[in-house]
């Protein structure tokens, strides 16, 4: 986006473990969504949406009501929660390397301008929690999402997933990718409806507690956009 002459390679988003041979990745994909890119950003700071939008994949006990933690970072905002002692969600049930219930973390991180790092951690019951060390059974999958605005009403949603298991297992990669495509098309339906309906809002906006992460991110991004506009308006 923008003037290629002004692009700084140092700003390219870092993929942690990119060169780690123990990690596997999916092909990912690109999904056009007829909505403003900020609606997609909001969505990726809302761990609770899976309880309603992704019932057959990412939903699970606690995803609708376990308490959330909101943190500001230098590069954006993280909304996260630990859910303890529950079965893994349907999408991860056959991917994790242990049986029975788990402790699960939903880590939803948005980085300016519009890159999401969506980390799922599944670990045997009793081994999860803030500052708990990883065990050799801890399963991590990170979905990287690069929201690219096309115009005010359209976004290219570009993504892939990176996991700490099965580095060379093409079947696992395909299964994960196919499942993600189904889930992201569920998001697309909701996001396009949000975009259309919010454009013709007939009742006042209501902010819920779980909107805090999205509101915080939008404020940070707007400050940066405003600063850039001032910079561009000033004569060199
Ligand atoms: Fe979603």
Question: Can you characterise this structure?
Answer:
The protein is an alpha+beta fold and 236 residues long. The protein has a single domain (20-200, 208-233), classed as Naphthalene 1,2-dioxygenase Alpha Subunit, Chain A, domain 1 (Alpha-Beta Complex), CATH 3.90.380. It is built from 4 helices and 8 strands. Strands 1, 2, 3, 4, 5, 6, 7 and 8 form an 8-stranded antiparallel sheet that branches. A hairpin with a 3-residue loop joins strand 5 and strand 6 (115-124). The longest helix is centred in the C-terminal third of the chain and has 30 residues, at 170-199. The model has no long low-confidence stretch (mean pLDDT 94). Bound molecules: fe (ii) ion. Residues 43, 49, 53-54, 183, 187 line the site of fe (ii) ion.
Topology of helices and strands:
Elements: E1 24-25, E2 29-33, H1 37-43, H2 50-53, E3 69-72, E4 76-86, E5 102-111, E6 115-124, E7 139-151, E8 154-163, H3 170-199, H4 212-233
Helix pairs in contact: 1-4
The structure holds fe (ii) ion (FE2).
Structural class: alpha+beta
Bound molecules: fe (ii) ion
> What composes the largest sheet?
8 strands, antiparallel
Total count of helical runs of at least 4 residues: 4
Ends apart, CA distance between termini: 22 Å
User: What CATH architecture would you give?
Assistant: Alpha-Beta Complex
Query: Roughly what is the average pLDDT, rounded to an integer?
Result: 94
Structural Rg? 18 Å
Strand content: 25-35%
Which class in CATH terms? Alpha Beta
């Amino acid at each position: 986006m923008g003037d290629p002459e002004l692009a700084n390679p140092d700003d390219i988003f870092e993929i942690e473990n990119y060169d780690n041979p123990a990690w596997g990745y999916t092909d990912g994909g690109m999904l056009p969504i007829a909505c403003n890119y900020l609606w997609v950003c909001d969505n990726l700071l809302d761990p609770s949406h899976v309880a309603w939008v992704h019932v057959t994949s990412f939903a699970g006990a606690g995803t609708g009501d376990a308490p959330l933690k909101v943190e500001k970072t230098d590069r954006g905002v993280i909304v996260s929660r630990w859910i303890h002692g529950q079965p893994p969600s349907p999408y991860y049930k056959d991917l994790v390397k242990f049986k029975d219930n788990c402790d699960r973390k939903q880590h939803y991180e948005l980085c300016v301008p519009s890159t999401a790092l969506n980390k799922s951690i599944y670990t045997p019951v009793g081994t999860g929690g803030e500052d708990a060390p990883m065990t050799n059974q801890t399963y991590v999958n990170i979905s990287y999402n690069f929201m690219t605005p096309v115009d005010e009403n359209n976004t290219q949603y570009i993504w892939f997933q990176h996991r700490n298991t099965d580095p060379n297992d093409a079947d696992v990669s395909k299964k994960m990718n196919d499942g993600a495509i189904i889930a992201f098309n569920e998001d697309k339906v909701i996001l396009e409806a949000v975009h259309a309906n919010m454009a013709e809002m007939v009742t006042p906006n209501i902010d819920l507690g779980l909107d805090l992460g999205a509101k915080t991110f939008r404020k940070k991004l707007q400050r940066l956009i405003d600063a850039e506009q001032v910079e561009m308006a000033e004569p060199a």
